[in-house]
Amino acid sequence: MTAGDAALSISWRRTGWARIILVACSLLVIIAFVASLAIGPVVIAPEKVLSILWDGLFGLRGSSGIELRDAIVVLDIRLPRTVLAVVVGAALAVAGAVLQGVFRNPLADPGLVGISPGAALAAVAWIVFGGAAAAYVPSIVTNHALPLAAFAGSLLAIFLLHKLATHEGRTSVANLLFAGIALGALASAGTGLIIFIASDQQLREFTFWTLGSLGGSTWQRVGLALPFVLALLAGSFWIARGLDALALGEAEAFHTGVNVEHVKRIAIIVVAAGVGAAVAVSGIIGFVGLVVPHLLRLSAGPSHKTLIAGSALLGAALLTASDIFARTIATPAELPIGVVTAFIGTPFFIWLLRRNRRSFG
Amino acid sequence: MYVAENIRMRAGAKVILDGVSLSLQSGKVVAIVGPNGAGKSSLLKVLAGERKADSGTVTLDGTPLSNTGAAALAKKRAVLPQSVVVAFPFLAAEIVALGLPQYFPKVEGARIVERALRGVDMFGAREQVYDTLSGGERQRVQLARVLVQLWAHGGRGYLLLDEPTASLDLPHQLATLRIAREHASAGGGVLAVLHDINLAAMSADEIVAMRDGRVIARGTPAEIVTDDVIHALYGVRASVGTAPSGPFLLPQSVIF
User: Fold this and answer.
1) Does any CB of chain A come closer than 8 Å to the CB of residue B98?
2) Is CATH 3.40.50.300 correct for B2-255?
3) Which residues contact B215 (CB under 8 A, 6 or more apart)?
4) For an interface test with B, which of A1, A10, A352 has the most B Cβ atoms less than 10 Å from its Cβ?
5) Residue A139 — very low, low, confident or very high, per pLDDT cuts 50/70/90?
């Protein structure tokens, strides 16, 4: 073996494996996407779904009555909801991955550490009190007021979390979870209070904000969330290498040439944007940001470029699949999707906590 | 040249560094010795740009450190901390590759990483998860990472090593000091905090003796490893002998 061959053969065991995982995640997204369009009160064959999608691209909607009905079901009812599940799932998983990188701790989940509850509080506050304020802000703001309010709420929550949980660049798992639980409890109490004050009718919406739902998805909601989620993705890839270096510690990352404050600032802003948008359109959906990045670290390795790409894909697939389950298990009623993700996520969280009990100090 | 002038730093009421000056030239290995709490590690952090001194200046090749960004600094100096806890299950080779700049030719990068791993005798463990390695093995992986950082920028630059031999067995202690010497011979500069006087005497061109945040003596090993300096430094009487390699300290004769 020549020196050059030896150099190329070095370690990169993971690069090949990581590629396979990314391809597998992409396939899962496609399967979940088509399944979500096919499954429901009216079951439509997958090949039919694909042809409806293809025709829909050109504005065609079939000729017979049944074809027209199926086209409406797929394109108008299920498609916006499925796209929203993809967008929200990707946002939550990537937000989790980035948050864990910044706190150097695999237990940071936007829902668990109080960021989603903070966003929900701000969103609910806007819905109830925003009407009075709307007269004083420009229309460009009011059009996006709900995700912007949620963004502000999650930004404040992350900022407080960072202040409370981090001491001299180190975040202990106990501090992180205690601070997160306190913030989450406070925000949830605030949300409950505002909804209590508001009106009896809005009381029913309470479950939407605490347990999450993709019900009533519209293209308008997709449009509200998408710019924020794209910002999260772009920002995350931008700082991926910095997050890798941060795994060594803040001082060590600085030694290798990383502007640590810059990386942290971008991470906090884009996570707040992504979580805020996700909460604004779907309420609090927990554990996606915990489970997905962890599965990817186990399979494809902890390198953040792969982790972020894989989290976006697997998060989208997981939330889409969870939503299929949530809306079909108890038809005609709908289970809050946060209940589904919590049932998947909680045992996982406990397992993670036990497995790492010693090393998390 | 690395030059620190009149560095002062306090933490609360406690004076950590009390007017320390130091210079480090290319081609030289300088060892800092002294008792616990002498301010050795703090001085290293100030030189690394990680902590700001309350007063005094540090310049690197004529440019004040305070005017240099993280990325520019990383091209000129690399820092080996006492121990590094890695947050996620990175492989040894992945840790070493973190020493490379973000956009670096892949093949060239792999070659540098391999050379560094072989240099610290960790090539065989390159695919092991860093967390599963022993303390000494981790330290060697970190040394490889630090070397890669300088090699990626031409191989000169300054190595700042904080107790690089602390958790190593004897052969790897010697190997680490040999790597430091090779780096100096190749045109770089090395500053190492060392606890072992004998290793310092063996490997350094100059020894800086620190106590209570001050430099109390500096000079060649023969000038520093003497009964008087050792007593002034540690407050103990020790027996200094001479071997063909230079002066040495006999631990058995240290009386508390």
Assistant:
1) yes
2) yes
3) B20, B21, B22, B208, B209
4) A10
5) low
Query: What burial class does residue B3 get, using C-beta atoms within 10 Å of its C-beta: 0-12 exposed, 13-18 middle, 19+ buried?
Result: middle
**Residue-level pLDDT at A257:** 95
Residues in chain B with pLDDT values less than 70: 251-256
Are the CB atoms for B198 and B249 separated by under 8 Å?
A: yes
Greatest alpha-carbon span in chain B: 56
Q: Cis omega before residue B89 (within 30°)?
A: no
User: Which domains are delineated in chain A?
Assistant: 13-355 (1.10.3470.10)
Instruction: Please tell me the predicted confidence (pLDDT) of residue A3.
Output: 40
Mean residue pLDDT of chain A comes to: 87
Q: Do A251 and B98 touch (CB under 8 A)?
A: no
Q: Does B129 touch chain A (CB under 8 A)?
A: no
User: Parallel, antiparallel, or unpaired: how do β-strands B189-193 and B29-33 relate?
Assistant: parallel
Q: How many Å separate Cα A19 from the centre of its chain?
A: 22
Instruction: List chain A residues with CB under 8 Å of B144.
Output: none
Q: Cα separation of A272 and A270, whole Å?
A: 5
| Contact call for B110 and A10, based on CB within 8 A | yes
Give pLDDT, residue B133: 95
**Ramachandran assignment for B39, one of left (phi > 0), alpha (psi -120 to 50 degrees), beta (any other):** left
Section A56-69 average pLDDT: 84
Q: Is B48 on the interface with A (CB under 8 A)?
A: yes
pLDDT band of A174, cuts 50, 70, 90:
confident
Q: pLDDT digits over A199-219, tens only? A: 766 666 667 777 888 988 889
Residue B30 to residues B2, B42, B205, Cα–Cα distance (Å): 12, 16, 6
How many other C-beta atoms lie within 10 A of the C-beta of residue A24? 15
**Residue-level pLDDT at A201:** 65
Query: pLDDT tens, B184-224?
Result: 999 999 999 999 899 999 999 999 999 999 999 999 999 99
Amino acid occupying residue B255: I
Q: Between β-strands B246-255 and B206-211, what pairing exists: parallel, antiparallel or unpaired?
A: unpaired
- Run of H or E including A318: helix A304-328
**In a 10 Å sphere around its CB, with 0-12 CB exposed, 13-18 middle and 19+ buried, how is residue A131 labelled?**
exposed
pLDDT at A6: 40
Tell me if chain A has a CB within 8 Å of the CB of B79: yes
The domain spans of chain B are 2-255
Q: Find the residue in A nearest to B50 (Cα).
A: A251
Residue B38 CA, chain-centre distance (Å), reads 16
Helices (DSSP H) in B24-169: which residue ranges?
A: 40-48, 70-76, 92-97, 106-119, 135-151
Give residue-wise pLDDT tens across range B30-53. Answer: 999 999 999 999 999 999 999 999
Residues of A in contact with B82 (CB under 8 A): none
Query: Residues of chain A with pLDDT > 90: what percent?
Result: 52
The answer to whether residue B49 neighbours chain A at the CB level (below 8 Å) is yes
